[in-house]
Amino acid sequence: MSEMNRRQFVATGAATVLGASAGSAAVSFDSGFVGSAATATPFSFSVMLWTVERTLPFEQRISKVSEAGYRAVELVEEYKDWGKEGFAKARQQFHKLGMVVDACSGIHSSLCDPAQRDELLKEIGAKLPVLAELECSRLILLTGNQVPGLSHEKMHASCVEGLKRAADVTAAQNVEILLENIDPEENPKYFLTSVAEGFQIIREVNNPHVRFLYDFFHEQVAEGNLIAKLEKNIDLTYLIHIADVPGRHEPGTGEINYASIFRKLGALNYSHYVAMEFIPTGDVVTSLRTAREFAEKYMTEGRSMTATLGAHRSNYAPA
pLDDT by residue (tens digit) across 204-237? Predict the structure, then answer.
């Protein structure tokens, strides 16, 4: 998700969220929990809710996502003013619709600034009761902006150490951490603008609960060469965000060849969430449904091609 749009939600809400959820009991979730409401296909699709008619009440927005055939949403801090009753009401709707919250964001402290390390870890620890309320087991982290006077190498090292320490904080609740890149056109000050460096950071962290959120929109703007980096790092890719360039609209409205990308995801047997984070150009439900069906078609095609190739190779294997 873009830092710019995320900030529209989180600029002032952290204290309210933490206060509302401070009394929540700690809950441990299996890493497989988010797949419990999978769609009829072997693929898991989600929607980043900030893109869905933000003037409507929360429950109506969720209903639109469900109507489009999705069984998961991602939240920023739409819940920032909720108390216990608000969380309970949301859970009731999610359960009724067979939906889950597959990931949340909303951490404000910098990952690349070592001077903010203690503040970062404290904020993450305070977010855990909120994740428990939402029955969510994945937390999206941004690196924050570059630190004046600090070398790139030191900011890189701070991200590595910060993620290691953050994973220690989230381990008891079995929460995965997902690192995300932002393109330099949207935020020229943001530290992590390269997917390649993002994957490098994850490999240096070397923790199975710390993985990467590959945002194709941001990487296309920043560097391109999307599929080669996906193939090379598919083992560390645990969430994908989808929007086309330019405009951040539906797949097929811009320059990214999403048919090839979805086909490749299928061929690579990608098994984690694909989240739509585009601004619909028409009716929201129709747009989201069309995007999901488009992705399903080409991911299925890619998986079928791989299965056929595997069978072909088996038939001609030496005796």
Answer: 999 999 999 999 999 999 999 999 999 999 999 9
**Burial class, 72, CB count within 10 angstroms (exposed 0-12 / middle 13-18 / buried 19+):** buried
CA pair distance 263, 222, nearest whole angstrom:
23
pTM summary value: 0.84
Q: Comparing C-alpha atoms, which of 79, 76, 103 is closest to residue 89?
A: 79
If you average pLDDT over residues 129-139, what whole number do you get?
A: 98
Three state DSSP letters for 157-218:
HHHHHHHHHHHHHHHHHCCEEEEECCCCCCCCCECCCCHHHHHHHHHHHCCCCEEEEEEHHH
306 pLDDT band, cuts 50/70/90, is confident
* Tens digit of each residue's pLDDT (9 = 90 or more) over 23-57: 333 333 333 333 333 345 689 999 999 999 999 99
d(CA 80, CA 94): 18
